[in-house]
Amino acid sequence: MSCLKGLKYTMCVVNFIFFICGVAVFALGIYLMTSYNLSSLLASIHAVNIASTLFVTGIIITCVSFLGFLGALKEKRCLLISFFILMFILMLVELGTACILLLYETDIDQFIEKDLIKGLEKYKDRGQNATTENDWDTLQTTFKCCGVKNVTDWKDSVPPSCCTEDPCPENKIKYWNQGCYDKLKKVFDSNLLNVGIGVIVICIIEVLGMCFSMTLFCHINRSGLKYK
Fold this sequence. Notes:
The chain is mainly alpha-helical. 69% of the residues lie in helices and 0% in strands.
């Protein structure tokens, strides 16, 4: 009994921590959506940007962790089984996404490169009079790159974010000589091990959460309590 009680409160504490993290991610997504005009880097999937991704991720984390916390605290079988099913679905989605990325790595790589070029063309259509910061400005400033392949992608409309100095001087302007596509790919490849470890850790946490919820569910079921 004491072990089950410890398991119950451990599950409550862990889910409460994840709930707070989910609220923080959700709030950050709302802040970015209301404070910045962030358009997508990928032209074909305009809805995908930093703000919307954080917004949706925060909602998912908050809802799932709330179910786990409340189900464990109140010992509600319906909430515990709902938590188990949602965690199982999330794990299947993650594994499915990983398999698709591995199987179609080359095709996805080519698609992203072409779509980045389309996104860059859309940015150029905005003209130089745009005052709000764009994803391309953020990307080029953060990773110190310019264009998809190089500065020639911008032709005659090179944005100030490509400049190596801030503020950009009127004379002797120098641009970053490396394209953002190659820079992002290099950054991702160098952090591939960390990404893999992170995915494994997340899967382990999800499996433990599923085990905890099912253990509590079975204990409540064997206790002879009425369905709740």
